[in-house]
Amino acid sequence: MKRYSFNLAAVLRARRLQQDVAKADLQKANMAATAAELAAKASLEHYRQVSRPEDNRFLAQRQQAELAAGSLAGARQALVAARVAVDDAMARYVDAAKAVSVLEHLDQRGRQEHRLAVQHEEAAVVDDLVVSRHARQQQRLHKPGPRP
Q1: What SS3 class is residue 93?
Q2: How far apart (Å, rounded) are the C-alpha atoms in residues 56 and 48?
Q3: Nearest of 101, 94, 76 to residue 25 by alpha carbon
Q4: CB of 63 within 8 A of CB of 10?
Q5: Which residues contact residue 81 at a Cβ distance below 8 angstroms, ignoring those fewer than 6 apart?
Q6: Which of 6, 62, 100, 136 has the largest CB neighbor count within 10 A?
Q7: What CA–CA distance (Å, rounded) separates 77 from 81?
Q8: 0.70 cut: is pTM over it?
Q9: What are the respective helix, strand and coil percentages of the chain, to the nearest 5?
Q10: For the purposes of burial, counting CB atoms within 10 Å of the CB of 44, is it exposed (0-12), middle (13-18) or buried (19 or more)?
Q11: Tell me: the pLDDT tens digits for 87-134?
């Protein structure tokens, strides 16, 4: 019997590559979310420092506090966007992983079916050998030969 080959091997390779790309995208999105979170924390800390009242610089302090508040709001929006990007990247990775899993399952089933077919073919060959050997032995036993 010929050797097993998975008909969708090229598709499986492509899906695995897509899964690797999705995994890399997920890692990038997680790093971006972590960076956005650190930026938001730093912005909050800066805002807290700037918004502390000082006696003689009220207007300058107020302007700095407004700028810091705007920066904080922007950092929080960036953090939300980064978390949404992580969720999207995770969904793409899960979809890619599912596609690979389905193809791997099909490959596994194909290998099992091929193994069973090979076993069946080997059993048929052994049966043929046994039947033919038995027939030859029966012929030898019942063959009229010279009698003394």
Answers
A1: helix
A2: 18
A3: 94
A4: no
A5: 36
A6: 100
A7: 6
A8: no
A9: 85, 0, 15
A10: middle
A11: 999 999 999 999 999 999 999 999 999 999 999 999 999 998 998 888
